[in-house]
């Protein structure tokens, strides 16, 4: 995450997980917990997990790089499945873990996603974050050992589109933010009523160069029902923690 800052409070944003390759000793990409044995990630993350030597651990219990990985679940690449039930959006996937996680009152919790009981008017689009473990500079391999964030505001005029646009609070180019290995990073915004962080989008393209976004600008797929292409939202409603209670 280019020019990002470490998250000050451990477990501030439940449900965000790093996917760490045990062979290379590096984070490959970012995922989000849907259920005890399911994560959400993007197509490039799927490709990286499928092509990398296993195991690809899911770092769930802390924002810090673990010392011991053997107790962590890993991604079963062969279970990757499109989130969009129509198959029209081939960029966002779910995948199973080789063993379930145990939810607790700390980091290990399902992410909060848009649902029928969560109107967009309850989401503060001026108080949002993009989080990740990816490179913090233009240098490949400069990834962070702890979860970092970029604070952003989402342009409400882009909500109806399938791609959410944002501006960085620090004044840097809105084309920047997600960098190498930040594929699948969630865009989360504060819920005005409950204070929860709602995952309203997922990074589909990183900015290149990371510091400028001149070749490709960072892009985020919308998970909102208000999007005219809301198939990703529909796919999310099949998971038990997304269903309103």
TrEMBL record:
Domain Peptidase S1 span(s) in chain numbering: 1-245
One Pfam family it belongs to: Trypsin
BP GO terms, sorted: proteolysis
PROSITE patterns, per database record: TRYPSIN_DOM (PS50240)
Gene Ontology MF terms in the entry: serine-type endopeptidase activity
UniProt keyword Disulfide bond present: yes
Record keywords: Disulfide bond
Entry keyword annotation includes Disulfide bond: yes
Superkingdom of this protein's organism: Eukaryota
Family indicated by similarity: Belongs to the peptidase S1 family. CLIP subfamily.
Protein name: Peptidase S1 domain-containing protein
Species this protein is from: Biomphalaria glabrata
Higher taxonomy: Eukaryota, Metazoa, Spiralia, Lophotrochozoa, Mollusca
